Amino acid sequence: MESLNLSYWEKASFYTSDVLIVGAGIVGLTAAIKLKKEQPKLTVTILERGFLPSGASTKNAGFACFGSLSELIDQEKRCGTTLLHQLIKKRWIGLQKLRLLVGDPRLDLKINGGFELFKPSEAALSEECVSKISHFNDLVRDITNEKYVFNIFNSKIEAFGFEGIDCLIENRLEAQLDPGKMIKALLALASSLDISILNNCTVNNFKEDGNSVSISTTQGDFKSKKLLFCSNAFANLLLPNLELKPGRGQVLITEPIENLKLKGTFHYDKGYYYFRNVGNRVLLGGGRNLDFFTEETHQFGETPLVQNTLLRLLKEVILPKTPFQIDQKWSGIMAFGPELSPIIEEISPNVSCAVRCNGMGIAIGCQTGEEAAEMVLRSL
Q1: What pLDDT shows up at residue 55?
Q2: Do 248 and 313 touch, CB atoms closer than 8 A?
Q3: pLDDT of the residue at 222
Q4: Cβ distance 109 to 177 under 8 Å?
Q5: What is the pLDDT of residues 177-192, one digit of tens each?
Q6: In terms of Cα–Cα distance, which of 286, 328, 324 is closest to 306?
Q7: What CA–CA distance (Å, rounded) separates 209 from 86?
Q8: Of 179, 148, 152, 181, whose CA–CA distance to 64 is shortest?
Q9: Which residue, among 282, 307, 303, 281, has the nearest Cα to 293 in the 3D structure?
């Protein structure tokens, strides 16, 4: 490897810290911010493998949500009512903490409501969801302090311009935000707290040396007292025993559409498809359920199967009578696992992790980062 030509000053100022965090997404940044607010004299460094956060923090759809009704029904079947209530509470608190930390204007947050779509062929699912509206309204009441969060809203189907949809369920507390502005604001806050953020720096391996950790990277060797992995799906490249798997989310966005009818966030097919307006554009993503095996990858990219399905959904259901052009496509890498809760745990006395947001990074990321910071502080 070509010499990095590091000076004494560079090694002294950038390569040694009290806490080193891997990953400059929402979890890593909020963990670092919490650490510095609690103990301002700590030296905290974040290493990010990409030029920008390379997982999903700036590549997601910007849904400030805590679960569509069909998702919540599935999750309740998996984990039970008590644990689901705890998870929804963490998602809701995480969203409120993010809003308080950054501020709604800097998030470009808009509470336009969320809507779940059902086709006539999905009558059994829609009937189950409708039958569960009262149950879930009761379940989230003490969390949101709202009586009627979920409602049938079929009157909006025609107004939104959908084709082939006969049932629409509203979550009136769901919001949308700008992930780019969110991370930009968190980066600014981190910088103001004297947190070092080093980009294009991939961690190759690490080794514990008594009361410290040596971290080998593409930009040289770092040393810290504590090492915290906040790299979500990429964490299992170095921590292979973690119970998580990557899940790629493919996303596209249209050119501006005149007189666009859509306003809000939308879920379809148990949340495997999601779309929203971004101003007068339509952003649409999802489809990993079409081929779980192929989409279980750390590689960014697109597949014809998913892309063609997204386009067909746009043409036949979302914008059936409106011409559109695709402006841009991209993908993000999320992390999923057998349990719905994030993994926030010590791997060893000086190494810990806060990963596996299960596609709920915006909602639970801030809470996860703060819990991770508290764990690290207890071990210092």
Answers
A1: 86
A2: no
A3: 97
A4: yes
A5: 999 999 999 999 999 9
A6: 286
A7: 38
A8: 179
A9: 303
Mapping DSSP onto H, E and C, the string for the chain reads: CCCCCCCHHHHHHHCEEEEEEECCCHHHHHHHHHHHHHCCCCCEEEECCCCCCCCCCCCCCCEECCCCHHHHHHHHHHHCHHHHHHHHHHHHHHHHHHHHHHCHHHHCCECCCEEEEECHHHHHHHHHHHHCHHHHHHHHHHHHCCCCCEEECHHHHHHHCCCCCCEEEEECCCEECCHHHHHHHHHHHHHHCCCEEECCCCEEEEEEECCEEEEEECCEEEEEEEEEECCHHHHHHCCCCCCCEEEEEEEEEECCCCCCCCCCEEEECCCCEEEEEECCEEEEEECHHHCHHHHCCCCCCCCHHHHHHHHHHHHHHHCCCCCCCEEEEEEEEEEECCCCCCEEEEEECCEEEEECCCCCHHHHHHHHHHHHHHHHHHHC
What confidence score (pLDDT) does residue 2 get? 53
Residue with tokens 């915290």: 228
Question: Residue 5: is it exposed, middle or buried by C-beta count within 10 angstroms (0-12/13-18/19+)?
Answer: exposed
- Among 3.40.50.1820, 3.30.9.10, 3.30.2350.10, 3.40.50.300, name the CATH number for the domain at 111-175+245-336: 3.30.9.10
Q: Name, in order, each residue with C-beta under 8 angstroms of 300's C-beta and a sequence gap of 6 or more.
A: 248, 330, 331, 332, 333
Gap between the Cα atoms of 108 and 94, Å rounded: 17
CA-to-CA distance for 302 and 248, rounded, in angstroms? Answer: 9
Residues of the chain with pLDDT under 50: 1
Closest by alpha carbon to 66, among 129, 149, 134?
149
Six token digits for residue 63: 């849904």
Amino acid code (one letter) for 185 = A
User: Which residues are bridge partners to 16 per DSSP?
Assistant: 223
Residue among 302, 298, 190, 179 at smallest CA distance from 244: 298
Dist CA 273 CA 36 (whole Å): 38
What is the pTM for the complete model shown? 0.96
Q: So where are the chain's domains?
A: 8-58+180-243+339-379, 111-175+245-336
Q: What is the CATH number of domain 8-58+180-243+339-379?
A: 3.50.50.60
- For the chain, what is the largest distance between any 2 Cα atoms, rounded to a whole number of angstroms? 68
